[in-house]
Amino acid sequence: MSQTSLLANLLDRRAVVSTMLRDRKGIVAIGGLGASTNDMAAAGDHDRNLYLWGAMGGAVMMGLGLALAQPDVPVVVITGDGEMLMGIGSLATVGMQKPGNLSIVVLDNERYGETGGQTSHTSVAADLVGVAKACGIADSQAITTMAEVEGLVPKLHELKSGPRFANIKIDGANVDRILPMRDGTFIVNRIRGSLGFAPL
Q1: Owning domain of residue 180
Q2: CATH number of the domain enclosing 165
C-alpha cells in the first residue's frame, strides 16, 4: 500500500472527538495542550471541559487527580502523541493507581503539531499502546477505524472497568483553530459548579 493511500485511510480528528463527546452525559473531558483542546471546543463548549493551555505533558496527571478525587464521575483525557510522549511516565502512575473511571485517548498524527509539525517518535519506534500495557493499563488498544471509535464510546462512561487507553491514528490535516476561553479560573470554577462544589 502506498504512503498516499495509508494517509487517506487515517481518521479525521474532529470527527473522532465529536463522536466521543456526542452524548457525553456526565463526562469531564480534559484537553491536552494545543490541537486536542481546539478539537474539544469545535465539538462544542461544555461546563465539564477543562482546556489546558500550557504544561505540556500534564494532561494525564490532571485527569488522574480528578478521577481519584471524583470516582463517581467519568473522566476522559483527550491529548496528542507529542504531549503523551512528554508525559509518558504518567502512564506508570495510572497503572499503579488504576482508577476505574479514567480513560486516556491519544490522537496520534505522528507529529509535534504545536512546534511546526516535526515527526514524532510514534512514526517510527514508539508504541504507545505497548507502553500503556507495560505500565499496567490492561485495557489498551490501537484504533484505526470509526467503527472502533464508536465501540470505545460506551466504555468512556464506565466507572469501574478502567483505566483504559486508546491510541487513535488520525490524519495530519491542518484544520481551523477553534479557540476556547483561556480564563483558567473561570474554567475550573465552572467545572466545580457542575460537580456541585463552590468556586475557589
Answers
A1: 3-194
A2: 3.40.50.970
Alpha helix stretches (DSSP H) within the chain: 3-8, 13-20, 35-42, 59-69, 81-86, 90-97, 128-134, 146-152, 184-194
Cell of 86: 512528554
| DSSP structural state of residue 46 | -
Query: Tens digits of per-residue pLDDT, 8-42?
Result: 568 999 999 999 999 999 999 999 988 899 999 99
C-alpha cell of residue 54: 500550557
Quick one: cell of 145? 477505524
Domain for residue 101, yes or no? Answer: yes
pLDDT in tens, 121-155: 788 788 999 999 999 999 999 999 999 999 999 99
Residues 170 and 177: their CA atoms lie apart, in Å, by: 16
Q: Within 10 A of 174 (CB to CB), how many other CB atoms are there?
A: 8
C-alpha cell at 80: 496528542
